[in-house]
Amino acid sequence: MNRLFAKVGIALTAALLGIGIILYQQNSLKESFGRIESTNQTFQKLHTDIVTLQHTVLQANYFLYFNTDRILQESKTITNELQSLEKKIRDNADYYPYTLHHLRKTQALFAKRVETIHDFLTLNASLKNSFVYLPTLARKAYTLFDITKPLDREIILLLSKINTSLFLAKNALDESFVEELHTYEKELAGYLRRIGEKRKARLLEASYRHLNVFVSYFPRFHKELNEILDKSMVHSLEKTFRLFSKESKKELDHINTIGNVFLLIYLGTILVVIYFIIHSEKENIRLKKMRDWLEKSLVTDPLTGLLNREAYHHRKNLLSKPALILLNIDRFKHINEFYGAAIGDAVLQECTKRLKTLLQTSQKASLYRLGGDDFGVLFEYENQDEIEALIGEIFDSCDNTSFEINGLVIDISMSAGASTAKERLLETADMALKAAKSSRRSRYLIFNPSMDVSETIARNIHAIQQLKTAIANDEIFPYFQPIVDLESGKTVKYEALARMRTASKEVLTPYHFLEAAKQAKLSGTITATILRQTLETARQSGAHFSVNISSGDIASSYDKKIICGLLHEYEEIADRITFEILESEEIEDYELVADFLNRVRHHGCKIAIDDFGSGYSNFEKLLQLDIDFLKIDGSLIKNIDHDTHAELIVRTIVEFAKGAGIETVAEFVHSEAVLRKVKSLGIGFGQGFFLGKPLPFSDCPECQIKDS
Amino acid sequence: MKYTLLFILLIGGALHLSADEPIQPIPKTIPYDHKKAELGRLLFMDPMLSSDGTVSCHSCHDFDHGGADPRPVSIGVHGKPGNVNAPTVFNSYFNFRQFWNGRAKDLKDQANGPLHNPVEMDMIPKEIETYISKNGYYNRLFREVFHSEPSYPKALEAIAEFEKALITPNCRFDRYMRGEIELSAMEKKGYRLFKTLGCITCHNGINVGGNSYQKFGLIFPYVWRAENPDRYAITHDPKDKNVYKVPTLRNIALTAPYFHDGSAKSLEESLRKMGHHNLGFELEEEEITALKAFLNALTGEKPAILREGGRKR
């Protein structure tokens, strides 16, 4: 989290820095451009204002009445403009050393110009005064002087000349006329000394003084006017402007350079942000991949990559009319054991490949691995034919071509169960599969309600419960069925048969609970219970007994221990016990059996093979086991009186037993005719309803319970 | 004769060579910072700004005498007489320079002068700063106006702001120029004379003067004294002897005596003297009457800021 904040922080900082730089750059560019532009305008305006001022000064020279404020105002404006310009330039003195230097020179020049203008205004007023007064005085002189008198006429003439020259000098701004005026001035001074009359003398004196002012002021006035009107001020400004243009180019170049640097920095910040984006995107992709993988592994099987049961349930609910084909590889367990798990896995993968290839064409079907060697094909149901066609295709693709794995050639076959019962799809397909497996006729079946074994399952569960309760309450006990010596007709032994009393006091035969006992791994417990009670009965009665024991009991070391413990406990009577091993059950490990038999034999027990001839009997192995009795299966005996085929088999068994020195017992002797037949075949012992039903020991005929 | 005609024609032409009116009316109002001006007013009236506590700006710029001094020369601290007749403070904002010889470029600059001058108020900035800082009332006002400590430059600024407000608008002549009223025949004649006699060459612009330096005694020289407050005192250039800033003629009827030395006691006397010294001839009686009528038409209203009453003191 902190790392995230740090990243976001850095990215944000970078972005803000970038934006800041751009804004700053834009701003400074704008500011610079704006400043340069406004400076340019100021230069232009100054130029105009200077020319205007010169024009105004010229007006002040020519107009008789003139508002001097205008000149002052204009020069003040220029002074202020120069000042603000100077400040502008000074604020960026780094870029504009020459401009600033020269601008200050221009300012100094203008300050001097202003002084000149002030002086000019003084002179201008004085000159104008005299320029107006000399003609006025002359006019007064026309009335005062008498032109008939020579002296007076000369004076009048002189005054006229003075006025003419004055006029030309002032209006032509020509100093050559001032020379003339100088001469007239001297002449006028001469006349002034010769005039006696007071009024005339005063007029002449005033004229003389005015002329004197004009003559003495005019050159200065003229010089100053020229100075004010000359181009030096404009030139100075223009030169400053040229310098400014040059240096402002430099400034802009510099700003551009900075701008480029900023741009690089900005790009850098963008790269930083991009880096983070890529980084986090990568991280996202990684996380997404991981999530996808996790999700997938949640719903897929790692071995085949197929969707698993989880995914199946999810998908099934999305379909409106789902159909499921459940496929199972026949005898896969055998393949696994024979070739090893690695090859087994390879077979599964090959199967997967083939199924996938097959189903690729149909978009709607999806493939699952629902169990060890169970595959499921799920699709939207349309009709029965479609299901059958698909199963056919699957069988074709998997059965007709051998699997080649690591150079091994393996042939497999498949069974299938299909169902369209939406609510219990997998369960019902499984039932159909099981039905197909156990059927000899068809390799696949489509579920119909008759296959529903859920009743059975419920019964099984009930049976197990019942069994457990019975065991806990000691309600498992033996009934005894006599085994008769056919020669003497005497009962020589009783077979202990397990019975269970239910809560409703009903006594049940093993048919009802044996399967449950096997499933619940309780058959050993039952065996031990029955054995203990039988041993107890044997002790009390002194009779001989046989007890059933399954190969499962023998295989279980725990049960074996208990059985051996009991034999030890009843050491003195153990030799009266015969163990009947069920031959029909596949004896997987003969060594284990042999070992057990040796142990019980050590206690003096005898060994019988039960239900001999019902299944596939391995005579050689049996011989190795060194058994005492063969109990011939009831299915061979019950019709032996009229089934010649059965008779032939029994004869063979009897022959073999005789040769091996093994006693024979016929089970299922249920009639006189059967009894006679088995007797004639030379079987030593018989057992069956005709000879005696299974009963509690106390109810048995001929039973003798010895007093202890 | 030919000459004469030509001459008359030319002169006639010259006389009509007139730009727009050479005198401009004073604006009716002028924008200024009222708070600052009120502070300036207090300072202007405050004799504590002088070394002996007897002289304020107002002592020599009397609002009842057109903002000028009725005495020929002003009297400073300890009764020391100055060497100059104080020019009016009214409309001084429109002058291009301040003082008779224009040595101050603006009002702030000007206010600095008398405060320092040993024969006027005789103070040093430090003392003034101490005084306005210690005085609670001033202290508060300065903070209100300037948002900072009281200081000498700020005090000058306030005084200048007050003086800026001392304009006298709406004199008869200004109203005539704005076309609001008609002048009397005499006044009109006076204005015409004012122009034709050449007074206008120096007395023009918004302040009817105050916008150029001119020589007093251009035609017939006026007596020159070393203590004169003329341009020569600054430049020491002989041609600047008796050269002064042209004084304003506004409110001239109220600001006797006249000239830098207060030597003219009346308008008539000053007109005659100017006629002689600067025009070189004697004015006729009727010319003087007409000119006086015109000059009287230049008396404006008392500055609004003084009529407003201002703060209680």
UniProtKB/TrEMBL annotation, chain A:
Any Pfam family hit: EAL
Entry keyword annotation includes Transferase: no
Domain GGDEF: residue ranges: 320-449
Lineage: superkingdom: Bacteria
Transmembrane segments: 6-24, 258-278
Keywords on record: Membrane, Transmembrane, Transmembrane helix
InterPro entries, per database record: Cyclic-di-GMP_PDE-like, DAHL, EAL_dom, EAL_sf, GGDEF_dom, Nucleotide_cyclase, Rev_trsase/Diguanyl_cyclase
Annotated ranges, domain EAL: 460-708
Keyword DNA-binding: no
CDD domains linked to this entry: EAL, GGDEF
NCBIfam families noted in UniProt: GGDEF
UniProt protein name: Diguanylate cyclase/phosphodiesterase
Lineage: Bacteria, Pseudomonadati, Campylobacterota, Epsilonproteobacteria, Campylobacterales
